[in-house]
Amino acid sequence: MAIKIRLARGGSKKRPFYRIVAAxxxxxxxxxxxxxxxxxxxxxxxxxxxxxxxxxxxxQYWLGQGAQVTDRIARMLxxxxxxxxAERANPKKGTPGKKAQERAEEKAAKAAEAADAE
Length: 118
Description:
By secondary structure, the protein is an alpha+beta fold. The chain contains three helices and five strands, in the order ββββαβαα. The chain has a five-stranded mixed sheet.
């Protein structure tokens, strides 16, 4: 049984609230889970202590048992100081889109024409 530590959504429409759970990876997102490890309320301010609550002893236990964490939970654990910060590389994120590149080329061409005219 492959265990994952992940978020299970609760709350009403447009009012999200998440439980941090240890669940079998084959179960649905909001379905059956093995153990509830904490809560996450994204509507609270980022500096609020109530935003993320985790039972760190149980999280450490499940990590020791070989549980995998999702990316969002990994970030929460990094912020709590439980895990070392992982290097994330997304080389496409910083590159401008097609239209922005076309606008930049047009601007450079106009600048070059203006420089030639003077």
